[in-house]
């Protein structure tokens, strides 16, 4: 099968030449394992942190020559274990084409009851998959906005952010959302109905713009960016305000470990709360509830689909230059 490998560690924003497509041999299927046909791959910012030589992360680092892996949607093609052929699963998969992919740890897969006629399997990588789970966990489980509260969501036209906005609305909060382009900010106002939008690619002007949009402060910051945006949000928090720390994408290219905002002490001074979280480990306890709630939400959830395994580097690199709205996926094969 063909699989994308890291050619070299990127410096700054990754480019397509940092990756190389190589043949990966598939030995005969051992007992207890399954062979998968990959149909869709999630394109996620955290993968950039795995390409750094050091720094925090819950998954091992990738060096030159390492095969890449991503959250993906697959169908079981052959089974020599307890999974049934034809079943759909999601899990961590090699960034490989749809021809027979073996997964060494079938227990790491989550089975899906995918209706036969589901038009877009990409949904299982977006609002009903790990992306939706991230937004749900951060907003619904940890952030818990209350009716009338003011919530700030950064990178809000992206995959996690756009769902987080809608979960906050559903809880009765008013949302201020930030994004890096005028088109994205218009979409956030017109399609998602946020009360105000800010430009989070303008670190200098951000604090002032936030103060204007939220003169009485914010109650909750759903933080995905880090840097000046995070700092400005802490400065605007009302007494007992909360931060759910989902990600720090603006720092993922720094070779040094990521930095805390210099005004972190303000959180203590106002009796605030900082809740950093990662998805892995939460699935057993919360997955079923998340699925049930998401099914009732029917969110606006655009998919930004690129086709074919060859498109993977382009899809990944585009995450950092803010190309699409919603969730970026690479679709493979027959879907
Ligand atoms: P997105 O779909 O939001 O794509 C990334 C977006 O971030 C881009 O479109 C761009 O939007 C913005 N962006 C990228 N680089 C910068 C930068 N330097 N400065 C400002 N904006 C930037 O990705 P996801 O929704 O998948 O991820 C959003 C966040 O959630 C990330 O921080 C990610 O690491 C985190 N995450 C955390 C998880 C967890 O378990 N805690 C799980 C999954 C994701 P724009 O055009 O608006 O600038």
UniProtKB/TrEMBL annotation:
State whether keyword Oxidoreductase applies.
yes
Chain ranges of the Enoyl reductase (ER) domain = 15-330
Pfam families per the record? ADH_N_2, ADH_zinc_N
Alphabetically ordered keywords of this record: Oxidoreductase
Known SMART domains for this protein? PKS_ER
GO MF terms on file?
oxidoreductase activity, acting on the CH-CH group of donors, NAD or NADP as acceptor
Q: Which PANTHER family does its entry note?
A: PROSTAGLANDIN REDUCTASE (PTHR43205), PROSTAGLANDIN REDUCTASE 1 (PTHR43205:SF7)
The protein here is known as NADP-dependent oxidoreductase
Q: Which organism is it from?
A: Billgrantia pellis
